Amino acid sequence: MISRSIFLVGPMGAGKSTIGKLLAAQLQLPFADSDKVLEERTGADIPWIFDVEGEAGFRRRESEVLRDLCHGPTQVIATGGGIVLMEENRQLLRTYGLVVYLQASTEQLLERTSKNANRPLLNVADPRARIIELVQQRDPLYREVADIICDTDHCTPKQAALMVAERLSQDATSQ
Questions:
Q1: Domain ranges, residue 12
Q2: Does residue 175 belong to any structural domain of this protein?
Q3: From 144's CA, which of 8, 11, 55, 95 has a CA 20 to 30 Å away?
Q4: Domain total for the chain?
C-alpha cells in the first residue's frame, strides 16, 4: 500500500506524464501533472507564461503548484523537468513523497520532444545541444532527490510503469 505521493522527475521527454498516468492507474491512485495544473490555474499555456513572465515567473508559479500538490491526497505526480532547480522544491519532493527519476538517452529525449512545440526551452536553433546542456545541469539534482532511478530508454510506457511499480513495491518491502 502506497501511503505517500509519488513524484516523477526527469528531463522533458523522459515520459513523466505518460508513465505517470499508467502508474497511477496501476496503483489505483489519482494522477496529477504539475504543468497541467499550472495551466488550468492560470488559464494560459506554458509557452505564453514563459513569454510574458519569463522563466523566473514560470518557476515561481511552478513552486506554488508543487506546494499545493504536496498538501493534497496521496497521488502520482508528474513534475516539470526543471522542478528540481529550486532548493525549496527539492526539499518539498524529499519531504512529501517518494521520488522516481525517469531518465532517458539524449536520442530518446530528442525524438520524444521533437513532436511537441509546447516546450519553450527547446525553441532554439540546436535542440539536441540544449537537451544535453539541460541534462548535464539537472542530472545531479534529479539524483539528489531520487529514491528510485529508472531508465525509460528501451521500454514502452506500459513497461516503464510496471518497472516503477515493481521498484516501489521492492522499496516498500525493504523498509
A1: 5-164
A2: no
A3: 55
A4: 1
The CA-based dihedral angle spanning residues 30, 31, 32, 36, taken in that order and rounded to the nearest 10 degrees? -130
Q: Is 17 annotated as a binding residue?
A: yes
What cell was used for 28? 489505483
Q: Evaluate whether residue 171 is within a structural domain.
A: no
User: Is 138 assigned to a binding site?
Assistant: yes
Cα distance from N-terminal residue to C-terminal residue, the chain: 13
Q: What is the pLDDT of residues 57-86, one digit of tens each?
A: 999 999 999 999 999 999 999 999 999 999
| Whole-prediction pTM | 0.91
pLDDT band at 93 (very low <50, low <70, confident <90, very high): very high
Query: Any binding-site annotation on 25?
Result: no
Region 39-63 average pLDDT: 90
Residue 15 is labelled as binding a ligand: yes
